Amino acid sequence: MNTDCKTEEGITVGLIDAMMSIARVLRDRELHSEVVQEALQDIRDDDDMHWLMNMGDLDSCEEYIAYQRKQMEGIMSCVEKYKELLEKAQGKEGPTA
Q1: Do residues 90 and 96 make contact, with C-beta atoms less than 8 angstroms apart?
Q2: Which residue in 23, 36, 49, 50 has the fewest CB atoms around it within 10 Å?
Q3: Which runs of consecutive H residues, i.e. helices, occur in 1-97?
Q4: Backbone dihedral region of 83: left (phi > 0), alpha (psi from -120 to 50 degrees) or beta?
């Protein structure tokens, strides 16, 4: 199937093709150095890469949004706990300037 590279769909297909081409080039590269391993770990840890590699497992965009919302709720929970601890510390020791 041919796509017009000037349309949104064609651009999307081109981007996907480019990622596959990059993967083919990387496959034959030396990947054992510490710096390269850190970069590869960044790819494994990246939310956008996680989404991309698991798109077929997602039933819909809503599922991805729910996943992101859950991640954000976890972060906000940590922020709230930190704020509580900070307020308690400032209450006992007075405000810090």
Answers
A1: yes
A2: 23
A3: 8-27, 34-45, 47-53, 61-93
A4: alpha
At a CB cut-off of 8 Å and minimum separation 6, what does 47 contact? 68, 71
Give the whole-angstrom CA distance, residue 54 versus residue 68. Answer: 14
The structure tokens listed for 63 are 């599922």
Any idea what DSSP says for residue 3? Answer: -
User: 69: which residues sit within 8 A by CB, 6+ positions away?
Assistant: none
Read off the pTM. Answer: 0.49
On whether the CB atoms of residues 26 and 19 are closer than 8 A, the answer is no
Collect contacts of 61-66 with beta carbons under 8 A, ≥24 apart. none
List pLDDT tens digits, range 50-85.
878 877 665 666 777 787 888 889 899 989 999 999
